[in-house]
Known about the structure:
CATH class of the largest domain: Alpha Beta
Structural class: alpha/beta
Number of domains: 2
Largest sheet: 7 strands, mixed
Number of strands: 7
Helix content: 25-40%
Shape: globular
Amino acid sequence: MDFTQEEATFFLRGLRKSGREAEFKSVFEELIVKYPWELSFIAETKIRPHYYIGILLAALQAKAIGINAITAIEFGVAQGHGLRNMEICAELVEKIVGISIDVIGVDTGVGMPEAVDYRDAPFQWKAGSYKMDKDELQKILKRAKILIFDIRTTLLPLQSALKSHIGFCSFDLDYYSSTASALSIFKLTPDSRIPRTICYFDDVLSDFCFFSCDYIGELAAIKDFNESNPRIKIAKINGMKHMFPFLGSSKYPFVEQFYVCHDFHHPHYNTFARLDIPGGTTEPLSDGF
């Protein structure tokens, strides 16, 4: 199929609006495999672009250093719409990059636990919120594994479930205490992950009640992790809006929510890992819309 970016975007939009779902899916997959960085195509779908970008960046890094399978983890599943979205993104990236991607969701299953102290920001988050209906969730999932346990008490269920290198993690646990416990996954041996694990933190931005800072919530968990781990640092991806120009608007705040867990002593940290993908470039095809 030979389209300019603008023609392809309008063609996809027309298929979507006319309800031609099967044709839309076929054309979309053909285009995104050909132009993986063209996120204006993603914008015509219900796919979460931050999941797609995170998994794609992780898969490219893994393939470049000879790893043929990675795991994407969602910490904080709730009703499961994000986990299903993660499955879809994993399937797309498998076609683009040519590696296998496992998907795991971690949740208490009964909603948020009780806050421990002020760092959990109980003025913003409420115990019991975001409960899961596991039976209903299992009906919509295709491949993801759901692990039901409290991450604040143990890491063993997740550690036992890992069958490939951790490549991408989405942290949507809200609390400082839960996030700090989940970050312990990066204290496992280096062979459990890629050297620069891509991370998305859902609750590092402010709203009219929650004023995000380094002393509460997810940012406090990141700060404390970095202070206690001299060889591993979780750092924000600077300039991400310039990597994907059309994402720079306020409509796409997630460009400020991407971090990388750098394991400087990982045996492959210094391995050359720049890899071009189908489309012949690691640059966006255009500025989008």
